């Protein structure tokens, strides 16, 4: 195995950089392209607020937007215990009395939320109807009816409805994998395999966590990350669910909960397999051994996002195997562009962070897989 040097990385990505330069230097996108090349937290270019902080993913959402040039001015949270801790973390943000203070503030351009999942789409509709753009935690939409309503209002208002798929946007190894794939490092992508194990910690979970109608079910919830990555890495613009199934293996006290699920999916750019579970053992030093394998015609890439059980410290481990051998790629200095690109999009009315069509298609696949999943027998033996 060899470690890829900085010079090797620059050479590998040269074709991608040239292609992006040729495609983005149109007058309307020039300022966004120039700003996106910068690293670190940028000077404030937009003002944003937060409504709903029920999941701690909101911290990553806020921090990404701050890095991208957002000024965090106000937030509203219903729960005092969550509100007080959040206010201590972001002391410069005003604590709003209700959501109207944020929705009706003409200076706020973007609203972020990690409110309870079944409330995210209705909130996003209110945000867009108030002339603001929206970034939701995943899952950003839970049902086909919600998706239809969101699509209708987004088409009417032309506002941005973004879902923060953090397993791609906030993972340096996954961002680097995207750069390598676009540069042609493994040829044409054939398939993605996404594994999303999580640790459950039942005493720490709120009541809504256990009810599929509130959180969406395992395929719609944590599976939404994987559908986003499937579309992105295969270059698919459309997809269909081949098969999906869910189980409740070890939580009889919550009979509607699903702690295992898997999916086969195909698109116009490749195929995918997705496996999700809530079985991360106590001995793992992080919440889940999330992995992504990207199979190409000339090689494959594996991202071990959060831990390497082989013993290397930390996360963001990336391996590429091609005709030259096996390479471990250091992702320490990889930039995370999502927050910066989204701020660019808010200012320039572009789609550099994620196209609206991609956002909705990833959600549609997750909802479809969940809705049509075979529900296996509860307990350890699903066919007994």
Ordered list of secondary-structure elements with their pairings:
Blueprint: E1 2-3, H1 6-24, H2 30-36, E2 46-51, H3 57-67, E3 70-76, H4 80-89, E4 94-95, H5 99-103, E5 110-113, H6 120-129, E6 133-137, H7 144-157, E7 161-164, H8 166-169, H9 172-182, E8 189-197, H10 212-215, H11 223-234, E9 239-247, E10 260-267, E11 271-277, E12 291-296, E13 299-304, E14 317-322, E15 325-330, H12 338-348, H13 356-371, E16 374-375
Q: What brief labels describe this structure?
A:
single chain; 384 residues; alpha/beta; Rossmann fold; Dihydrodipicolinate Reductase, domain 2; 10-stranded mixed sheet; 6-stranded parallel sheet
Structural class: alpha/beta
Mean pLDDT: 90
Q: What is the number of independent domains?
A: 2
**Major sheet details:** 10 strands, mixed
Helix content: 25-40%
Report the CATH architecture of the largest domain.
2-Layer Sandwich
Strand order of the largest sheet: 1-15-14-13-12-8-11-10-9-16
Helix and strand succession?
A: EHHEHEHEHEHEHEHHEHHEEEEEEEHHE
Give me the Rg, rounded: 21 Å
What is the molecular shape? globular
Let me know the CATH homologous superfamily of the largest domain: Dihydrodipicolinate Reductase, domain 2
Q: According to CATH, what is the topology of the largest domain?
A: Dihydrodipicolinate Reductase, domain 2
Number of strands: 16
Q: Give the CATH level 1 class of the largest domain.
A: Alpha Beta
CA distance, first residue to last residue: 45 Å
Low-confidence stretches: 1-40
Strand content: 15-25%
Number of helices: 13
């Amino acid at each position: 195995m060899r470690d890829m040097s900085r010079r090797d990385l620059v050479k590998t990505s040269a074709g991608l950089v040239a292609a992006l330069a040729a495609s983005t230097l149109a007058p309307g996108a020039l300022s966004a392209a120039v700003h996106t090349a910068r690293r670190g937290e940028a000077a404030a270019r937009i003002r944003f607020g937060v409504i709903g902080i029920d999941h701690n993913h909101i911290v990553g959402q806020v921090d990404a937007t701050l890095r991208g040039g957002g000024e965090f001015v106000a937030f509203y949270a219903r729960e005092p215990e969550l509100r007080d801790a959040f206010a201590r973390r972001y002391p410069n943000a005003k604590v709003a009395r209700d959501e109207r203070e944020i929705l009706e503030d003409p200076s706020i351009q973007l609203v972020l939320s990690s409110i309870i999942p079944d409330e995210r789409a209705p909130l996003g509709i209110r945000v867009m109807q108030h002339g603001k753009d929206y970034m939701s935690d995943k899952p950003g939409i839970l049902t086909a009816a919600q998706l239809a309503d969101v699509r209708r209002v987004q088409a009417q208002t032309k506002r941005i409805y973004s879902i923060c798929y953090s397993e791609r946007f906030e993972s340096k190894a996954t961002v680097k994998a995207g750069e390598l794939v676009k540069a042609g490092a493994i040829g044409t992508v054939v398939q993605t395999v996404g594994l999303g194990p999580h640790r459950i910690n039942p005493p720490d979970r709120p009541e809504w966590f256990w009810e599929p109608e509130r959180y969406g079910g395992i395929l719609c919830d944590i599976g939404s990350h994987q559908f986003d990555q499937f579309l992105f890495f295969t270059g698919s613009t459309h997809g269909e669910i081949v098969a999906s199934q869910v189980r409740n293996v070890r939580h009889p006290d919550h009979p509607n909960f699903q702690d295992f699920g898997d999916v086969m999916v195909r698109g116009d750019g490749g195929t995918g397999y997705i496996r999700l579970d809530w079985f991360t053992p106590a001995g793992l030093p992080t919440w889940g051994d999330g992995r992504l394998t990207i199979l190409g015609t000339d090689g494959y890439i594996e991202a071990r996002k959060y831990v390497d059980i082989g013993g290397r410290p930390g996360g963001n481990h990336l391996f590429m195997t091609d005709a030259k051998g096996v390479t471990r790629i250091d992702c320490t200095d990889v930039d995370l562009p999502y927050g910066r690109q989204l701020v660019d999009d808010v200012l320039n009315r572009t789609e550099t962070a994620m196209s609206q069509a991609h956002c909705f298609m990833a959600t549609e696949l997750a909802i479809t897989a969940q809705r049509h999943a075979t529900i296996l027998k509860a307990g350890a033996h699903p066919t007994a």
